[in-house]
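Why do we care about 3D structure at all? Because function follows from shape, and shape follows, mostly, from sequence. That is the central idea of this module. The next example makes it concrete: a single protein chain, its amino acid sequence, and then its structure expressed as tokens.
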Amino acid sequence: MKILITGANGFVGKNLRVTLEAAGHEVFAQTRETDEETFVIYCRDAHFIYHLAGVNRPKHEEEFFEGNVGLTTHLLDVLTRVKSQAPIVYASSVQAELDNPYGQSKREAEQLLLDEVTRTGRQVMIYRLPNLFGKWSRPNYNSVVSTFCDRVAKGEPIEIHDPDRIVTLAYIDDIVDAFVNVLEHPVESGYQLIKTHETVTLERLANLLYMFRDSRKNLSVPALDDRFTKQLYSTYLSYLPVDAFGYDLLKHEDSRGSFTEFIRTPDRGQVSVNVAKPGITKGNHWHHTKNEKFLVVSGEANIHFRKVGEDVVHSYYVTGEMMRVIDVPIGYTHSIENVGTRDLVTVMWVNESFDPNHPDTYFMEVQDETAQSDDHRRNETRNHSSVGRHS
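And the structure:
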């Protein structure tokens, strides 16, 4: 489908454009650089129109009406001239309910479009957008979220004059989804509903962003089951300077290898990377409640288990080529032994982040089959694991 977007270089326009193009639509992108002849061709050939162009931060008040009312009038005049009945989605603002110059200009533009519905039967969908946030929003222009994200990501201070001020926010992807949905599933002309979040204070917004910033040091990823926090975290990362994408972790290293914490979460546990030198065995402990998952990503290992109070040792042979996860149940003392000739690298997940005050870790040797030669033990465990069993 051929689709015209006015204001295609704006925050909403850019996000909508890449989404439509990815879906295979041909997009006519009208910007300030588009000449009149090209604009007329766009209006003539478009099957659907997203009217996003407008003015919201002019130097003079009259520019509100020139931009919002004038652009809408011009669009409708050109469509009439080229005899196009293409449906229109109009991005208005919640400020259309307010008695200020910007709100008045948006309200007048809305009325022009509603009159068009009555006069020609054209399908027109009007969305009164609240404060938006997401990638590609311009700091110090589009929204308080983009300004705060930009400053925190750059290590600059945030100035909040009224921390209790409440803002209503909508996420850019939700707006784009709504716009695309009416393209694929036509609705009746008129005002359309917008998915918004619960209101948030500026203080909470700032505190969340500070938490995201500090997560690089304390490794704590926020609870992403909260939709707003998840979307805000994604938005914050998009404002990181390009030379600040990477950060270093604290590696605990000794002659046996190393152990490095990667991610901590409040409710989904902790992920770490463990490195063991050839011939080294790590572990030999058990837990009451902690449970783990081991994934060897490089090297060869025997992972040994013995149920507390019993004598039988169970062993699994795993390699980095297998990509096989081994669960570590509670009540089993366990160890991981490097039986290869190079470093053993294991990704380890545990269901709770480490708490030094409640470690739930108790030393106990697994006492595996040390009497067997390394080659014999490797062959035994390889034979067992090849048929999906453990010894």
